[in-house]
Amino acid sequence: MDLDAVIWLEKWLKSYTGTLVLISHDRDFLDPIIDKILHIEQQTLNEYTGNYSSFERQRATKLSQQQSMYQHQQEKVAHLQSYIDRFRAQATKAKQAQSRIKMLERMELIAPAHVDNPFHFSFRTPESLPDPLLRMDKVSAGYGENTVLQSIKLNLVPGSRIGLLGRNGAGKSTLIKLLAGTLEPQSGEIALSKGIKLGYFAQHQLEFLRADESPLQHMSRLAPKESEQQLRDYLGGYGFQGDQVTDPTARFSGGEKARLVLALIIWQRPNLLLLDEPTNHLDLDMRQALTEALIDFEGALVVVSHDRHLLRSTTDDLYLVHDGKVEQFDGDLEDYQQWLVDSQRQQSQQDNPAKELSGNSAQQRKDQKRRDAEFRTQTQPLRKQIMTLEKQMDKLSTELAAIEAQLADSALYDIARKADLTQCLLQQTQVKSKLEETEMQWLDVQEQLEILTKEFSDADI
């Protein structure tokens, strides 16, 4: 699914009134839809109340109780804090840049929740960082006689971090192919610096892997002077452990192939990174590891992705590919979502001018505004109550995690600490009971909001 389709599906599922069991690797897609997480860890099913962001906070608290992980957690937090300080000092006032600061600060808070991530890698320092890396001047491109994009002007320098937006088929992948040199321009000039080194990820590259060769063989061809142990250690950061290092890639899933392609790209120390839907086959842990690695990347980045968390965390500027043009988008991803709605409405008006003329009279627009205002007024108390209850559930879940961490300490079961154990068990029972009560209140208010929303929706039909 592209970003437009994900946004549409999210909107539809939010209004769905039935029971929903959802598996997804897209955290921003999960957040507004779900109210409970079932986390499978060490063959155990753990339940967390709230959405994915709430789960991360609760799990961060739970893991912070485990002293063996404390030092590693602090290192990750300190690293992110240093990056935030550097970025804030040089960031523009652009809306997307400010959105990225907020996302980095949030990542710092939930870093402990990912301390046991099985994937751990970083981009190697590029051998050179020429400035500019690439320049496009009045470039047009397409296929055969069909022109898809025209008059493109783009200047990529070290530190450029661009996310491409646009509807499916608008030309985002065409622009990436132009930058990668796999598509020749129809007109205009593309100037590449002498020291440029491209790292290009696209879905079709997964098929270029040699099916009869293992990850170790792929790496050995790329780095023949490195020892086998060094290559094994490197591949371990991408989740290839033990016998899997020598397994032929013919047996690999799409996610495993994507991880191997990323490992091969990163090894080559690119200074210009072009990523076309890099997260398609990746699970949440690998997406988190890739996001953290991209934060530290020193070269230029151009990315197409339906993963809004990755776009918010790693890009400073958004460019819109639309109607044959590539232009900087003045806004963030929330503004882009509104742009999609507005452009769809505009297209509908062009396709059905007579219908729109009769349906958009001044009186009807006035009535619609009145209904919208009435809806906001009537639902505001419910929405406020939901937010309050969610905060209470977060707090109670955190308290419960801390109590259960104490109960996991074998020293608490010493005969001399019987009173402490009794008190701890009593607290666990009380907090669990309060959490269940709050959850029932939350479900009740959610149901009231859904009924009211449906009533207004039916009235508009």
UniProtKB/TrEMBL annotation:
InterPro entries in alphabetical order: AAA+_ATPase, ABC_tran_Xtn, ABC_transporter-like_ATP-bd, ABC_transporter-like_CS, ABCF, P-loop_NTPase
Keywords from the UniProt entry: ATP-binding, Nucleotide-binding, Repeat
Example GO molecular function: ATP binding
Polar residues composition bias: residue spans: 343-363
Record-annotated ABC transporter domain positions: 134-348
UniProt-recorded name of the protein: ATPase
Biased composition (Basic and acidic residues): 364-375
Claim: ATP-binding is one of the keywords in the record: yes
NCBIfam families: PRK10636.1 (NF007921)
UniProt xrefs under Pfam families: ABC_tran, ABC_tran_Xtn
Region called Disordered, residue ranges: 343-377
Keyword Zinc found: no
Domain of life: Bacteria
